[in-house]
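Below sits the subject:

***
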Amino acid sequence: MSDTMQSMALTVPQSGSIEAYVQSAYSIPMLSAEREHELATRLHQENDLQAAQELIMSHLRFVVHVAKGYAGYGLPQADLIQEGNVGLMKAVKRFNPEVGVRLVSFAVHWIKAEIHEFVLRNWRIVKVATTKAQRKLFFNLRKNKKRLGWFSNDEVSNVAETLGVSEKDVLEMESRMTSQDQTFEISSDDDDSGQGMSFAPAQYLEDKQSDIAEQVEESNWEDHANQRLANALVALDDRSQDIIKTRWLNDDKSTLQELADKYQISAERVRQLEKNALNKLKSGMAA
């Protein structure tokens, strides 16, 4: 991925301003299917980086949504979102608008892949000491500690200087070594211990019933179908439109006899008009 594309995603803050970032991401308007196809075509055919930027920015909200599903691993939300943004940029670069799906359906797999890799690299059960500095800390941290409890700022500085590592590495290793791994699922004994509610990683798995990509696709299909129905209705004469609306679309539906009395024709004639109008609607929506 080019440096230009990497610079397009918003930098996710590491402090309390993460809430402001989330609000900013959700404030960016979503793209219509037509606009999304236009931008993707420009990027795919002309390498238009301005189009890529608009595609990325309009999908940051989906990265936030996906990242929230991995909060149970205890990793910083800002880091999860940032890794998801990397996946989004990779997806935008590879997206082919002629495939016939919305970008979010394609990108969600890239977003999750980057977040999964980040979790595997950083969750304690997988990673405790993998770099040279961390291994040095792992074997020397306790004997350099003067008391129980967390390090003071002075102790952090002293340990970092003594071992020749950064203060950030000291704090990170201290956090890992003082935390405890959990079982993946709660055992029946834990559940009945009476110690209050307990939580395990299994309870934080993403909800497969809440697929943001599927929701966007369904919403897009529904909007498209409604527009085609409206266009097909306009092609009918006024009487046929009224029959279809009052028989099928209105909450308070009319009977055949009520429409027969309204138009001074037989109920059978109303049924014939209704049937003809429905056939025209089907043809119009299928065109």
In short: The CA atoms of residues 89 and 117 lie 16 Å apart. The two ends are 41 Å apart (CA to CA).
